[in-house]
Amino acid sequence: MKATLDLWWLLRRRSSDSRDPQGLTNVLAIIAFAATTAILLVVVGGVGAFLGRAGGIEGMRDGTGADVTSYDVQYPVFAAVAALLLLIPLVTLGGAAARLAVARRDARLASLRLAGATTGQVGTLTVLDAAAQALVGALVGLVGYAALLPLVAQLRFQGRTFEISELWVGVPALLLAVVGVVLVALFSAAVSLRRVAITPLGVAARVTPPGMKAVRLISMGLAFVAMIVATNVSFGSDAVGITILVLVLVAGFATLNVVGPFVIWVVGRITAHRAKGVPTLLAGRRIVDSPKTAWRSVGGVALATFIAGMTSIFALFDPSMGADASEAQFMGDLKTGGFLTLAIAGVLAAVSTGVMQAGRVIDQRGEYRALTLAGTDLKTLDKARLRETVIPLVASVGLATTGALMFMAPIIGLNAFANVDVMLQFLACVAGASALVLAGAAASRFVVRSAMAA
């Protein structure tokens, strides 16, 4: 064990090699973990604040048992639904950060395996690396959460702003968040490690992985069938029925991460086959070589698009049409909460795209330099990298729009999406989320310059 620890420390000290210039990989992973932790705590704090205003668990129990459910009791329910939807992009970003760190070290770990290192030693090195980065990122995220509290407290719900004490989650929750982020990192690292432990020669030789399977589409089909069943079956009580609907909706939301890489792979093959220029051909080939990475780069906007589909439904509700002041306030807060959830999802998408794009540049540094030596200018490489983002971005928005229609139609019907206000709001939300993602991709340009100069 001591030898493994010494080797890990040596590799940490020499992390800035020709494949990882200036330790940018560590910085990117820490940024992703920090964003995950800070936003997770903000979301949890928001749910806790609404729960506190409703009187806690006892207040919720009394409120749901009353003949007429008060609006105060409904706020924590909607906040919890938003938190569940945001949990998926949060876990995705945390997992992407862990895979980013491991992927950059695949070749090195594979070389150690070929040199005689055991699977256990390689596994320990990976776990230590992922845990160290996740822990540092989570601690930075705690500072970010503290900095965000005064800003979040300015949000106005139920006719008043929040007190910072309402949004404070407490020390136990802070510790749980750190532990949770580290566990997500360890799990993702362990999954990524399988390809190194099983096929070290293939990793070292950078063999192209096999294509994606269409069987992934079945998961979304099953979730859609479950939604139809859930909307047409009586479960004995409204609480149970709503709970099942929410769980099925979140499950359908999660299937985007399963179906997405296959759709991106198909689009990449079509793009490479029909390319009429060097930038498009480069982009198509890179997408085909790693569709999962391409999806992780833009998957956040797909999740944001799904949320935008739900948020746009609020365009049907005009607060001024409320029967009384309380109903008007509730309808207005629903819109505010929907847009806030969408904004958080958009920020997560932008961070995920920026981190993954920069990580891909580092990973492909050798290819960039080879293309430059062969006469390819940086303008062409920038165009290829932009199309490597835009093409999956368009595909993911189309997939998410289809998913939103599939899972929302059984609940509210297709007629709602024929409303002009709904469609305009949906398009505006998608455009905003897409702009954030493109900004995240553009932010990785400095990494290209750094990688080329190293």
TrEMBL record:
Keywords: Cell membrane, Membrane, Transmembrane, Transmembrane helix. InterPro entries: ABC3_permease_C (IPR003838). It is a multi-pass membrane protein. The keyword Kinase does not apply. The keyword Transport does not apply. Residues 100-197 form the ABC3 transporter permease C-terminal domain. Pfam families: FtsX (PF02687). The chain crosses the membrane at residues 23-51, 77-102, 122-147, 167-193, 214-235, 241-267, 294-317, 337-356, 389-412, 424-448. This is ABC3 transporter permease C-terminal domain-containing protein.
